[in-house]
Every structure is written in structure tokens, then in C-alpha cells.
């Protein structure tokens, strides 16, 4: 065995899209990829964190039957590993339950690594469910010694990798993940993993899940980092992939010989730490032809965001069993980009639009709504609402007598449109996509039970300034969004000559204030110190705080920023703090 006489290892990275709760299908995918990896001569195949159950399983973990079914699934996987080593994420049961990785070798579970550090911030809530791990071990396969850890453990300099490399002598660390996406996070991950690899003079395998789960998107971006911190392989982003990587770990040994720091560190602080080593029998593998053949380019900036929206929308719709979606097409940029994402996620035959002009809808927006529907080749229907508005006004005339027309009458229009969309949803089994963006959601510039009515909010976490960039990006792929939609001042068109800036500051001012207050948790004083007008800041903050009750009732949507409304940001509705 040529590879067993050296420090080489052929790895299969199974970057897969799992579904929470679908244990049987997840297990089938794991077994299928184990067999594919064996056919391609892999020594080891690596799967995502909680691959068996899907991530995050949340309160399903409180159901004993769910945990038992997950254990039964691992038992079905074990005999399929004859001739290969597999690292599989699952829920382990040992006096408590653990987020764990099973190390399965040649038809036998040879070890289980529990997750040390349980994240309990942002979208994570693992302390609610799991016990923390306390022990680490290493495994020797031929001339290669490797350690295993789970997701968050890599983010700590003192994670299991430290003792696995320093004490156990691991040349390779395998870290399995289900790490959610936000814009630019992959760059931060790469820097962090490069630091871990260089500090521990080891190779690092970072295997991430891919796919959408409710508001989360897992972007893949699995990678292998060498002992000097350089990325030697990247998987594709936002796509499933079984990637084959040939690793020469003799580079690790050489790096350790020329760098004496490890010797001193080991002598000083680790002599009393026990890290068990399990020696695995070398396995026969098929003849290998050639070296690494797969590669991919990294998405970046707006392309990355757009791909996340498409993947998140596709998986939410498909995994929840919806055949078609519908949205209100206003002729504005938000509904335009939502429609584009929907078509790219699902195909034109599964997307419908409803154009619902009122007496305030301009001929230009109506024309643009029809044009983009035609450009996308989706079915669209017209239901004018002027007569319905008249009926509402007549019904309320006596009660409203003596009051001035205002926001109430404007919101009636939005609620009529929401009613019509939900009527079609009920009649034809369509999922309603809402079209509000993060800037509007932040400030409450949306109508409860009106334009907020629906099942999935595609651009809920996308600031308005980014919506415009997304539109330009989508037009660079194919020019489907009329230029007038991009250049026209945004308007809800609920009263004559209305624009968003009648109510909101310009978006190029508003969005940075929202980012500072919501994402960075800055105070009013701190935001003003950044150069923003104090009156404007106080007005925006007041709008954000008083509309928390609306956001609690909003549809879920794709997370693309470091802090999204919903699971990510948990503030009390009843709250008088204004600084």
C-alpha cells in the first residue's frame, strides 16, 4: 500500500444538504456517500455536524424517540464502513446527550468525540440541550495520526485540537460543522482556521453542511488548511459536493522538525494530560489514478448574498412540501428581486405573481410589474383593488365620521392585498412570499396583516441599499429587471406622490444607523459620535424599538447579515430603554 508507507491520506469531504428530522433520508445519503467515497479510493470520509438528525434539531432533542431513532441510524451506518473510516455527526447518549462525532472504522465505532464548547449566542442555543464534552483522543491510521472535534471547538484556541496535536501528536484535525452563513463569514473562518493550523502545526479539515433550514443557510465552503495556515483546498459554496483531496502530511512532520516551539510547549504544560491513542488497522483501497481534480471559485460580495437567498428559499419551499409560490408584484424593486430569487430557486413554472393596482398605482409601476413578470416568464394575474377599497371605506364611513384620512386608510390597501394573496394561497396551495426588506422591517415601515402577510420573507434580512446591488447583480446575469424599477424613487404608492423618504431618512443614511444599532448594539451616543445627526438617530432608534411587536409576528426569512431579526436578536417588546 503506497499511501500506508508515507504520510499521505485520501480524504472524501461529504458536504451535504441534510433535512432536520428526516433521519431515514439523511442516513441513506450518508451511506450512499460512504459507498461513493470507497469507490473513489478514499481512506476517510467526513460528514457534517449532526448529519444524522440535521442541524439544528432544537426541541426535537427533547423527544426520546427522536434521540433513539438517531442511535438506530448510526447502527445502520456502521456496517457500511467496511474498507473505510467515516466521521459522522450524531447525537450521542451517555448519561446525558451530546453533540458528537462518531469515528467509525471498518465496520466498528472506534471512538466518539463530544463537542466541548456549546454555543449559546446569536442563533445558537446548544446549552439548552447538550452536555459539554471533556475528553479528547487521537487515532492512528497507517502513518497518519488524527484528532476529531465538532464545530465551535475550532473557534477556541484551547479547543480539543490543542491537546490532540500537542500531546497526542495528531498531524491532522478533522472538524465537522453546521456553521450558518452570513455575508463575508467564510473569509473570517479561513483566517481563523489558518491561525489554528499554524499555531498547532497541523493540517485542518473543516467540513461544513450546506442547505437551508428555516431562517438559516449553511453555505458549505468546506476547506482543508495546511500546517503553515495556507488553504490547500476549497469545496464549492452553496452546493452539495463529494470532494476528494489527497493530503501529504509529511509536510506537517517537516514543519514540526524545523519549529522548536512545540517541544517547549509540550514539556512545559502537557506532561500530565492523557490523550488516548487508538491504532486503526490499515485498510485496502482501490488503485488511485491521478491527484486532486476538483476545484472551485469562491463567490464573493453580492454574488454570495444572492446565492444564499436562492438556496435558503429553495430549501424552505421544497423541504416544507410546497409546490408553488406567489407574491404581490408591485413594480417596485423589492418585489422584483424577490421574484428573481424565487424563479432562480424554483423555476418559472412554480412562481406566480399577483398585480393589485389601486387608484394610487402609477401607470409606470403597473407597466413595470407586468414587464418583469413577462421577462421572468411567470404566470401573473391582475386584481385591481380600487372597488374593494371603496367598499371598505363605505362600510367604515359612519364609524370614521369626523376623522381625517391617513395611515389607517393607507394600511387598508396593504391589508386588502394581503387578503387577496392569502385567498389564492388557500385556494391553490401556494406559499405566499412577502417582499419587505430589513430596512423596512427595522423601522416598522410595513403593515401588519398586510404586506407582512405570508409564509416566507425572502429579503427580510437584506438592507435596502443591498437590494439595489442585488438587482444590478441579477441584471448582469440576464437583464430581467426594468431599469426604471432600479432608478425610480421607492414608494409604497398608498397615497398621491408618496415616496419612502416622506417617512424614512434616505436609505444610505438609514441603513448604517440600523447596522450600528441592531448589528453592533451601539448606543445613541455612539452612533451620533460616528457623525450622524442626533435627531435622525433618535427617530430611527425609536422606530426600531417600538416595532419589535411587529417583527415577532413576521414570517421567517433568510439570514444574510451577522445579526438578523428573530432568533439572532432577542429584545423585550415591553421596553422603555432608549439610549
Could you write a compact summary of the structure shown?
The chain has 579 residues and is an alpha/beta fold.
Distance between the termini: 68 Å
* CATH architecture assignment name of the largest domain: 4-Layer Sandwich
Count of helical stretches: 18
Overall geometry: elongated
Helicity range of the residues? 25-40%
The domain tally reads 2
Work out the strand percent: 15-25%
* CATH homologous superfamily annotation of the largest domain: Carbon-nitrogen hydrolase
Question: What labels would you give this structure?
Answer:
579 residues, disordered N terminus, Nitrilase/N-carbamoyl-D-aminoacid amidohydrolase, 20 strands, 2 domains, Rossmann fold, single chain, 6-stranded mixed β-sheet, 7-stranded mixed β-sheet, alpha/beta
Amino acid at each position: 500500500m503506497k499511501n500506508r508507507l508515507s504520510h499521505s491520506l485520501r480524504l472524501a469531504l461529504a458536504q451535504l444538504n441534510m433535512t432536520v428530522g428526516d433521519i431515514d433520508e439523511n442516513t441513506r445519503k450518508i451511506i450512499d456517500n460512504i459507498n461513493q467515497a470507497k469507490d473513489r479510493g478514499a481512506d476517510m470520509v467526513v460528514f457534517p455536524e449532526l448529519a444524522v438528525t440535521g442541524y439544528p434539531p432544537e426541541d426535537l432533542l427533547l423527544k426520546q424517540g427522536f434521540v433513539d431513532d438517531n442511535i438506530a441510524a448510526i447502527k445502520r451506518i456502521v456496517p457500511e464502513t467496511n474498507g473505510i473510516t467515516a466521521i459522522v455527526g450524531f447525537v450521542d447518549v451517555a448519561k446525558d446527550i451530546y453533540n458528537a462525532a462518531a469515528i467509525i472504522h471498518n465496520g466498528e465505532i472506534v471512538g466518539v468525540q463530544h463537542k466541548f464548547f456549546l454555543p449559546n449566542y446569536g442563533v445558537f442555543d446548544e446549552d439548552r440541550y447538550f452536555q459539554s464534552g471533556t475528553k479528547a483522543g487521537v487515532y492512528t491510521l497507517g502513518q497518519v495520526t488524527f484528532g476529531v472535534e465538532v464545530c465551535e471547538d475550532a473557534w477556541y484556541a484551547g479547543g480539543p485540537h490543542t491537546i490532540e496535536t500537542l500531546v497526542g501528536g495528531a498531524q491532522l484535525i478533522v472538524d465537522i460543522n453546521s456553521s450558518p452563513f452570513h455575508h463575508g463569514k467564510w473569509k473570517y473562518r479561513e483566517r481563523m482556521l489558518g491561525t489554528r493550523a499554524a499555531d498547532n502545526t497541523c493540517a485542518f479539515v473543516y467540513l461544513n453542511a450546506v442547505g437551508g433550514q428555516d431562517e438559516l443557510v449553511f453555505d458549505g465552503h468546506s476547506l482543508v488548511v495546511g500546517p503553515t495556515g495556507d488553504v490547500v483546498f476549497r469545496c464549492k459554496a452553496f452546493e452539495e459536493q463529494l470532494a476528494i483531496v489527497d493530503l501529504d502530511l509529511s509536510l506537517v512532520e517537516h514543519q514540526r522538525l524545523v519549529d522548536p516551539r512545540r517541544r517547549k510547549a509540550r514539556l512545559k504544560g502537557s506532561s500530565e494530560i492523557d490523550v488516548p491513542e487508538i491504532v486503526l488497522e490499515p485498510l485496502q483501497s482501490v488503485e488511485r489514478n491521478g491527484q486532486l481534480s476538483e476545484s472551485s471559485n469562491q463567490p464573493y460580495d453580492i454574488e454570495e448574498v444572492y446565492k444564499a437567498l436562492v438556496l435558503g428559499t429553495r430549501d424552505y419551499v421544497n423541504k416544507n412540501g410546497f409546490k408553488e409560490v406567489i407574491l404581490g408584484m408591485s413594480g417596485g424593486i423589492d418585489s422584483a428581486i424577490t421574484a428573481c430569487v424565487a424563479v432562480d430557486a424554483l423555476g418559472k413554472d412554480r412562481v406566480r405573481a399577483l398585480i393589485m393596482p389601486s387608484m394610487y398605482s402609477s401607470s409606470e409601476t403597473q407597466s413595470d410589474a407586468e414587464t418583469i413578470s413577462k421577462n421572468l416568464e411567470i404566470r401573473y394575474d391582475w386584481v385591481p383593488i380600487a372597488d374593494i377599497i371603496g367598499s371598505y371605506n363605505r362600510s367604515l364611513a359612519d364609524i370614521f365620521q369626523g376623522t381625517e384620512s391617513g395611515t389607517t386608510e393607507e394600511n387598508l390597501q396593504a391589508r386588502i392585498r394581503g387578503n387577496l394573496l392569502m385567498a389564492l394561497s388557500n385556494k391553490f396551495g401556494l406559499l405566499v412570499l412577502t417582499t419587505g426588506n430589513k430596512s423596512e422591517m427595522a423601522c416598522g415601515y410595513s403593515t401588519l396583516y398586510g404586506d407582512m402577510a405570508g409564509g416566507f420573507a425572502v429579503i427580510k434580512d437584506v438592507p435596502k441599499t443591498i437590494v439595489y446591488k442585488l438587482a444590478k447583480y441579477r441584471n448582469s446575469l440576464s437583464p430581467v429587471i426594468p431599469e426604471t424599477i432600479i432608478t425610480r424613487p421607492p414608494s409604497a404608492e398608498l397615497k398621491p406622490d408618496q415616496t419612502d423618504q416622506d417617512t424614512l431618512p434616505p436609505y444610505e443614511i438609514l441603513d448604517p444607523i440600523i447596522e450600528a444599532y441592531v448589528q453592533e448594539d451601539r448606543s445613541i451616543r455612539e452612533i451620533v459620535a460616528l457623525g450622524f445627526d442626533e435627531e435622525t438617530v433618535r427617530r430611527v432608534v425609536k422606530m426600531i424599538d417600538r416595532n419589535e411587536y411587529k417583527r415577532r409576528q413576521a414570517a421567517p426569512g433568510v439570514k444574510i447579515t451577522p445579526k438578523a431579526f428573530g432568533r439572532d436578536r432577542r429584545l423585550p417588546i415591553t421596553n422603555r430603554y432608549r439610549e
